[in-house]
Specification:
By secondary structure, the chain is an all-alpha fold. It has helices spanning about 1-15, 20-25, 30-55, 65-90, 100-110, 115-135, 145-150, 155-165, 170-190. The protein has nine helices and no strands. The N and C termini lie far apart (about 35 Å). Bound molecules: 4-amino-5-hydroxymethyl-2-methylpyrimidine (HMH).
Length: about 190
């Protein structure tokens, strides 16, 4: 167990402290690298909405409000991606890169996983994203608007509410899987 914990701790760190996020914070990432990542994240959020709508459909009664709120927020997020894409001249019709495809496939597998496992995975993927963007905050970054958007109090509150639904016990392998896909997603942005 101690070995698993160490591996998971390292994965949490790798998924929340990444060279891409350092470069966003320092303002050294190029617009084209950032925009390429943003286009892939928009695709991921589309897959996430599909997964979450299905999760809502099979959620127990007390979890419905939080998960339904999350679905509405993801629809708003897709609208926001369209606004950003238009502003930055990003084509949102670009094909999914391998890390995006692989993460989408994990979400597809979660459709078949028990509810407790799936909601725990959702909490991990949202929490890691919040912590990751918090690590990119700085007064000098030209991407401050993005950092603020993904560290907003409303999002943090949502992540905490998901945390109330998550059951970490017995899901180490799944948590590790989600974290590995997050690391691969950041890796994709810097190659
Ligand atoms: C890769 N993980 C990734 N993208 C996101 N937008 C989120 C998590 C949270 O919605």
């Amino acid at each position: 167990m101690a070995i698993v914990r160490g591996v998971l701790d390292r994965l949490w760190t790798a998924a929340t402290r990444h060279p891409f996020l350092d470069a966003v914070r320092e303002g050294t990432i190029t617009d084209s690298a950032f925009d390429r990542w943003l286009g892939q994240d928009a695709l991921f959020v589309g897959d996430l909405l599909t997964f979450q709508a299905r999760l809502l459909a099979r959620a127990p009664r007390p979890a419905q409000a939080v998960l339904a709120g999350g679905c509405v927020a993801l629809v708003a997020e897709l609208d926001w991606f369209e606004v950003q894409a238009a502003r930055r001249g990003i084509d949102l019709g670009q094909p999914a890169l391998p890390a995006t495809l692989a993460y989408g496939e994990l979400l597809g597998r979660l459709d078949a996983a028990p509810y407790e496992a799936a909601v725990t995975a959702l909490w991990v993927l949202e929490r890691v994203y919040l912590l990751a963007w918090a690590s990119a905050a700085s007064s000098i970054s030209p991407f401050g608007e993005f950092v603020e958007h993904w560290t907003a109090p409303g999002f943090a509150g949502y992540v905490d509410a998901l945390g109330e639904l998550a059951i970490l016990d017995g899901h180490d392998e799944l948590v590790g899987d989600v974290l590995s896909h997050e690391v691969a997603f950041w890796d994709m942005a810097v190659v």
